[in-house]
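Students often ask what a holo structure prediction actually looks like on paper. The answer is less mysterious than it sounds. You provide the chain, you provide the ligand, and the output is a string of discrete structure tokens encoding the 3D arrangement of the protein together with flavin mononucleotide.
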Amino acid sequence: MSFDAEKEIAKLWAKCQAVQDENRRTFYQCREAAIQMAGDGADENAIALKAWEIKGKDVAKSYLPRIRMDKPKFVENIAKLFVNSWRNQGAVVTVEPGADENEVFIVWERCPWPTTAKQYGAPMAEDLAGCDLALQTTIADVALFSNRNLKIETTKAIPRGEGKCVRRLWLEQ
Amino acid sequence: MARQIFEWDYTNYPGAKKYPHVFSPIQLGNLIIPNRVKYAATEDNLNSHDGYITDEDVAYMRERARGVAGGLCTMQGVYMDERRFGQGYVGQAAAWDDKFIPGLKRIADAIHEERAVANYQLMHCGRVGGVETPFCEGPSFLPQRLRLFKPVHEMSHEEVEISIQQHVDAARRGVEAGFDVMEISGIVGYLISNFLSSYTNRRTDEYGGDVYARCKFMTDIIKGVRGAIGPDIPLIIRICAWEQLDDVGGNTQDESMIVYQEAVKAGVDSISVTVGWQESIVPVISRDIDFGTWLWVPENAKKHVDVPLSMAYRLFHADMADKAIADGKIDYWENCRPQIADPDMPLKYLEGREEDIRWCVACNVCLARLFRDAPMTCYINPTCAHENDPSYYPQPASTKKTVFIAGGGPAGLECAWVAADRGHEVHVYDDREKLGGTIIDAGLAPYNDDELYRIIDFHKAQCDKRGVEFHMGETLTAEILEEELPDTVVIATGADYLRGNGAPGFDRDNVISLTEALYETKPVGDRVVVWGNRKPGIGCALALAKKGKKVTLVGPERTVGKDINPSFRWRYNMFLRQNGVTSYNDCDIAEIEDGRVIIMTYDGHRVPVEADTVVYAERGPSAFAAELKAAAAEESIETYVIGDAVVPRGLSGAVHDGYKIGLRI
Ligand SMILES: Cc1cc2nc3c(=O)[nH]c(=O)nc-3n(C[C@H](O)[C@H](O)[C@H](O)COP(=O)(O)O)c2cc1C
Ligand code: SF4
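The corresponding structure tokens follow.
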């Protein structure tokens, strides 16, 4: 039987992207269901943010077993966990060094989440606040678990039209 | 004046001469214990859902008490809070009220009836103990590292004080129930260890702070318990000498030694030295850990405290324990799993019957069952947790039969000795020259898998003692059946390794069996694909990787090692990673070509992998077993099929099947 490697890889790649799309669509489908069930007058933004917060909490659960405080580059290693998660979701993300070992920047050159938000009619402000809340929630649990004063802040954001998302991750002394 | 509860004279026992240190007395506090054997606390999930002691647990404990031959026998840790905080296991014994005293007394009485010393244990499971509550209790809130466990509620100052009082009250109940020794468990991530550790204790009140402050919860309990039990009952604590939590900021070993000193100052008479938490990322007691690995830990602790120290943790053998006592590394010998696997293990040492010991294979199935809320069972000991059921023990057969067993592996041999024990005339046939069947091959896998063969040593000794006749190098054929006409045939021929799944290329010369690969009776190239992602395939992949081969493991199971219990499977995942073995799970081989194998994912994607050799390690029903069954049916012979010949499983299925059929014939 002949084997066409290029065709196999193309098929797998297409499937991987479809899974990534489905993952985001599922999030927005559930968001919409929750808003509809909440009925008229419900605070849509608050419902959406709750979903992002739950996502952030669950992401933290998968990071905690991977934390190694006895290894160097603690902050960079945490940043790499984010990089991996977002790459799996279809984003283009890298880590860039900061002033010293206690600071890094996570740079999203491209992220598919705002596009999906648009498709489901979610405001960009919600997308930004939601993503920020997820990251803050994850970092809060990671900080609590590791007993280190780890912080994250957004300095640039695609939903604000700034071309890329940049998050500063640092250990506050 | 020190007192002794039971007199034991070991002078005429061979084991006492061979292991003079193990079988010499030891004084704990004011109590003299006739020997230096301690059965360590074992939760068994056998008690009632509301914490009352059951007949099953009493029978379980009675057997272990007999086994320590006058030594110390510990009951499982009790939980102490009516709200069930601290309960780590659904069948855990409770002691939060006086109403539990009569049940606890049954355990103390059973231990005493075997003339052993009864040790009672207090165990609040802390951040890993909330099986019946929506959350667990701990000194500080911090997220769980393992998803298995529930969120932690940070105990208020008042709740801490209540918990201390609960320990004291439960200790008093233990004394009233008749126990001779009191033990506090602060191991593996339970509440006391949570307070002691810099990882889990972030409190800012008097129970948190530096290591001395973190000790306060433990020392308050020790002092309170001592007050409740009086000066004459020895008090033991089980605490970590090394938490193995450096990766999350746990106590340093120096801090742990301060903890030890504080425990002694507070009034304990002895410490049971432990290593590691459930949350540690390094293994402590699985089979890959060599015997005696942790002996340096109590040896180091000895430099810091001067009370008697004991230790379990893969210290399975009396010779090692005896030497460790002689060398001053420990003062007495503790064991848990060896006596789950064979309750009489120390007694058999004493009586010079070492060949009769059924050895634990450190698979951790017993633990895995507890975490799944199931009653404990043992991989290798079919009677474990059935001690109260007489039908689980051999009774003389009403009619003596001639029994022919095809297969000298673990299933056949287990069946052979039990059937012979009941009075049958038993013949075992095997085409190999050596007993053991596939366990011989399994022993070629790395990470101490050769230990598995010890069950065969046990079987052989039991068969020899009961006159089982071996026909080695001889296959039990239809002709033999026809000629000899035995009353019963037991087919224990194991499973067949399947040469392929019908995909093209499995008939090539470079496709070899697991045994051909392991014994290198056929050439094995540098790049190998092993087909079969269950235990045999994994063992073979690891053995080949250790020889420097680049190995790819392919198999239909969704996850690698689906047939290995979860408490041990993570070890194999790690071994595969460490040895650079790539796994394709939920996949199959689509085609074998020159120099490569095409792997097919479950959904039809095809991945090429370079390979010069393909090893088949998938198993299916034994063709020979089916033939023999048909031949036996033709002669109307009573027939049983057992072990992997029924369906490919593993050592445990083989032993349990063999035992049960041995009882039934
Ligand atoms: C099934 C099982 C239940 C256990 N239950 C307890 C317990 O109730 N209290 C305790 O302090 N340790 C408990 N342990 C830990 C053992 O007492 C012992 O420290 C550990 O198994 C290592 O010793 P070993 O290598 O001799 O098995 C348990 C261990 C097992 C395998
Ligand atoms: S289940 Fe496994 S680890 Fe537990 S006692 Fe039995 S053989 Fe040993």
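The longest strand of chain A covers residues 103-110.
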